[in-house]
Amino acid sequence: MASGKVTQLHTEPDAPQLEPAPAATPADGKHAVETEVDPVTAISKIAPITVGNPLDAASLAIDQDHLEELADPDAKSSVVECRRPPKGRFFTVRPESQKPWRDRRYYWMLQMEGRDPYIVAPAIAEKKKDEEDTIRPVLLVRYVMMDGEEGLWPVKLNPPDGKSNAWNTSALNILALAEKGWVRIVSMKKSYRHQVSNKTLEEVPPQFSDRSFDELVKAAFQDDQIVISLDHQIWDDLANGSKK
Prior knowledge:
- This protein has helices spanning about 65-70, 120-130, 165-180, 215-220, 235-240; strands at about 10, 15-20, 35, 45, 80, 90, 105-110, 120, 135-145, 150-155, 185-190, 190-195, 225.
- It has five helices and 13 strands.
- The termini are far apart.
- Strands 5, 6, 7, 8, 9, 10 and 13 form a seven-stranded mixed sheet that branches. It has a two-stranded antiparallel sheet with strand order 1-2. A two-stranded antiparallel sheet has the order 3-4.
- It is α+β, with helices and mostly antiparallel strands.
């Protein structure tokens, strides 16, 4: 007879009865796997695993001990906006002491109110800039806010004919201040007004991500926002209108 626990058969004269073998306790004190024994075949079968009430959504929550395996709470957003820093939020930029610049670059940009901006290839911009006033050169600058959110600021430039614009000049002044500390835009009446934070960059170090400037630009501009030909849809929208 094979060794191990089996069901014992007890026979009475008139009514035979089958009784399961008593449960065994391992010598090491650990809990044994729950089994039920077939009194006829003496084959052990593993009891089914229960997962709680399948109709109770709250019972299916993930154990917090395993949260770090599924998500990184310090991960940065993949969304990058091309816009001036929002009012009321402090931001800073990296100073650029030598070329090539690390976190800023000149681009031809096409901007329409109510729509996302477009980057225009230089050769196309040269052909269209005289007939389309929505195209102009900008200095695209990477900035970061105190919470680590990054963005790209399209700083408009004064025209080469020397006619300065109060908006452009004040934006360039704020950009220079942002190279030295935390600054925020507080109003926009005839020009940008600003406030400098009392917190220094040493007290609150900027949390620039590891992404390169080129990666930020690619994240901010989708394929249809890059104009590299004269048959791009944007030219028809400008000439004839659009429902967008």
